[in-house]
Amino acid sequence: MPRTLEAGEPLLTPFPRPNHLALLRQEKERRRRRRVSIGAALALFMTAASGSVAAAAAELAPAPRDAGAVTAAATIAEAAGDAKAALDDAQTAIDEAHPTVNTERLDAYVQKLEDYDKLPAIVVLGVADEAEAETEAVVANTAAANKADAEIAAEKKAAAEKKAAEEKAAAEKKAAEEKAAAEKAAAEQAAAEQAAQEQAAQEQAAPAPAPAPEQPAAPAPVEQAPAQTYSGGDPQSIARDMAASQYGWGEGEFQCLVSLWNKESGWNPSAMNPSSGAYGIPQSLPGSKMASAGADWATNPATQIAWGLGYIAGSYGTPCGAWGHSQATGWY
To answer: pLDDT of 249-263, one tens digit each?
Structure first.
């Protein structure tokens, strides 16, 4: 509940008060009541002066001042007081007004009230009332604008704090990820170095591998084999027929032969190993060994196949035996 102003207490100092509008309205009401009291007293005086009591008193006491003079004096004093108070309130409201609040109307009232002593009292009283009303509007608008500014500032502050917190969290997350990645890389490097050291230790402790045995020579045929005829057919078809007709090897042995020579030469009669010099479909080392099967050993797939099958039969018994040895050692 707003408190009552003390006599002579400035209305708008400091500005603005939390109950500033209530104080303005309280002061306005006090002035209205004072005017009413002055009017009632004047009316009572006028009534008493017209009766017999007034006549008797007139005989015993000095003649009073003219009622009109008394009324005019009271009104002028009231107008001057209201004008000064309204001026003080208005000027303070203008000085403290928010930049967005329009004070043009209140400025106009101030200019009128500054010349209050040149205006009729009744005009001064009306302008003072209007100035007080406009002062209340300026004060209310300023309070609303200040409140809006405070809310905007609070929102900006909250947004800035939120952004700072998010940036901090992102930076901490990034730092943690980089740290984890660095630790992982270091662990992987350490594991690789440990594995390399263990491998080196095993190699030093392991005995040197035995040299690979020389490729056994193909058994010399009892008789010089006649040159094989080659009609341009598929080498695998030639090998299938020879394996079945000359050695009695079935489809299972033939599949081992296919796997073996796929690995050695891809069934290419011109294939040559650039490291060892092995040649032809069976990769004879050297290729001239196949001359025992025919003089055209360098170009005739049938001659190479005939020699290769004889070599497999003499060294491993069957193509599957040769294929098993090749898988175990890398050669046959």
So the answer is: 999 999 999 999 999
